[in-house]
C-alpha cells in the first residue's frame, strides 16, 4: 500500500449553473520519501490537487488514503490535526503575515499545534522561540529574525516560508510554485534546500512548478491537463 493513495478523485467547484470540474477522476499514488514535481498548464488542477492532499479542502468524490488511514470522510477538526501535525505548506506568494516579524511567522504552526493538542505535550513560549530560531538558522536567515518580513527580499521571504513549513517537522511538504517569483539563482537555492530536506529526513515532497529545470531536481515528474494526470 502506498503512503498516499488517491483513487478516482473528483473535485467540482460551484453549483449546477456554473460548475467547474477541477479534477476529473485523478488516480495518484505517492510513496514515502518521494520528491515529485507536478507540471501542467494554468487551470489544469495543480493547486486543487495539492490542497486536497494537504487536507486544506475535501474532494467531491473519490477516496483518499493517507498513511494507511482512509481519511476521505474525516471531519474538519480531524483534517486540521493531520494538516497541522503532518503537512507543511509553501506557497508561491510566500503568504507570510506582514504584521508579524520573521520569527513570529515561523512560530505560527507551533502555536496552532499547541491549540490542537491537549495531551500535555504543549510547548511554552521560550521553547517555541528556540525552535523557530533553529529553523531560521537551518535556512540561513537567523540574522533577520526580528526584522519585518516586508524588509526582506523575495528569496529571503521564501526562506522564511520554508522555515515555517518545516518547523513542525512535517512528513509531507506541499510546495505550490515555491520558486515562481524568484530569479534563477534564488530558485536553485530554494529547490536545493527542499532536496536536502527530502534526502535528510525522508520527507515526502510535492512541488508544483512550471519550470522544467526545477522539476529535474525531483525523482518523479507528473503532468496534468484538464483535471487529469497524463500518463
Ligand atoms: N475556489 C474556486 N472556485 C471556483 N473555481 C475554482 C476555484 N479554485 C480553482 N478553480 C477552478 O478550478 C480549475 C483548476 O484550478 P487550479 O487552481 O487547481 O489550477 P492550477 O493548475 O493550479 O493553475 P495555475 O497554474 O494557474 O495556478 C480552474 O478552472 C479554476 O478556475
Ligand atoms: Mg495553481
Automatic annotation (TrEMBL):
Q: What is the top-level taxon of the source organism? A: Bacteria
Q: Which residues form the ABC transporter domain?
A: 4-230
| A Pfam family that the UniProt record links to this protein | ABC_tran
Q: Does this UniProt record's set of keywords contain Acetylation?
A: no
Any one Gene Ontology molecular-function term assigned to this protein's record: ATP binding
Q: Which keywords, in A-to-Z order, does the entry hold?
A: ATP-binding, Nucleotide-binding, Transport
What the entry lists under Gene3D superfamilies is as follows:
P-loop containing nucleotide triphosphate hydrolases (3.40.50.300)
Q: What SMART domains does UniProt report for this protein, alphabetically?
A: AAA
Know the name of this protein? ABC transporter ATP-binding protein
Organism per entry: Clostridium brassicae
Amino acid at each position: 500500500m502506498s503512503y498516499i493513495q488517491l483513487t478516482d478523485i473528483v473535485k467540482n467547484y460551484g453549483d449546477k449553473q456554473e460548475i467547474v470540474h477541477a479534477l476529473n477522476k485523478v488516480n495518484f499514488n505517492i510513496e514515502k520519501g518521494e520528491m515529485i514535481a507536478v507540471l501542467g498548464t494554468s487551470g489544469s488542477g495543480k493547486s486543487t490537487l495539492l490542497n486536497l492532499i494537504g487536507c486544506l479542502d475535501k474532494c467531491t468524490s473519490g477516496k483518499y488514503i493517507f498513511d494507511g488511514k482512509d481519511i476521505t470522510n474525516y471531519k474538519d477538526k480531524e483534517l486540521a490535526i493531520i494538516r497541522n501535525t503532518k503537512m507543511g505548506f509553501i506557497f508561491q506568494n510566500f503568504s507570510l503575515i506582514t504584521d508579524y516579524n520573521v520569527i513570529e511567522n515561523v512560530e505560527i504552526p507551533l502555536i496552532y499545534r499547541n491549540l490542537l493538542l491537549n495531551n500535555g505535550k504543549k510547548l511554552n513560549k521560550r521553547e517555541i522561540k528556540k525552535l523557530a530560531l533553529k529553523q531560521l538558522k537551518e535556512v540561513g536567515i537567523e540574522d533577520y529574525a526580528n526584522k519585518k518580513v516586508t524588509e526582506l527580499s523575495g528569496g529571503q521571504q521564501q526562506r522564511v516560508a520554508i522555515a515555517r513549513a518545516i518547523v513542525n517537522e512535517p512528513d509531507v511538504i506541499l510546495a505550490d510554485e515555491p520558486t515562481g517569483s524568484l530569479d534563477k539563482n534564488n530558485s536553485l537555492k530554494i529547490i536545493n534546500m527542499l532536496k536536502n530536506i527530502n534526502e535528510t529526513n525522508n520527507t515526502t515532497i510535492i512541488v508544483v512548478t512550471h519550470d522544467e529545470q526545477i522539476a529535474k531536481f525531483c525523482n518523479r515528474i507528473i503532468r496534468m491537463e484538464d483535471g487529469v494526470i497524463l500518463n
